[in-house]
Design goal:
This protein has about 90 residues and is mainly alpha-helical. The protein has a domain at about 40-80. Helices cover about 70% and strands about 0% of the residues. The chain has three helices and no strands. It has helices at about 5-25, 40-60, 70-85. The chain is rod-shaped, with a radius of gyration of 25 Å. The termini are far apart.
Length: about 90
């Protein structure tokens, strides 16, 4: 077998195996918990509002003595820290 034919066959096998491996790799589902994953500004705002409501409900369950303004500030701070990229 000539060197040219052998290298062509090896290259073909490499491309085929790489293609097969990529086809088998599962893609992660899109995140439904971050406003940035929404496609339009309206969807982002709606997602943000819902996250704020959920956070405030959880915060109120943990500490019912907190005022609405305190809960809102606490949730905004949490959302800011969650939205920052992690190094």
């Amino acid at each position: 077998m000539s060197r040219y034919l052998r290298s062509t066959m090896l290259l073909s096998m490499y491309v085929a195996s790489a293609t097969f491996a990529m086809a088998q790799t599962p893609q992660p589902p899109p995140s439904d918990t971050e406003p940035s994953s929404a496609s339009s500004p309206h969807q982002q705002q709606t997602m943000h509002d819902q996250m704020m409501k959920d956070c405030m409900k959880k915060g109120h369950k943990k500490d019912s003595s907190m005022s609405k303004d305190e809960l809102k500030k606490s949730c905004q701070d949490q959302m800011k820290t969650q939205g920052q990229p992690k190094n």
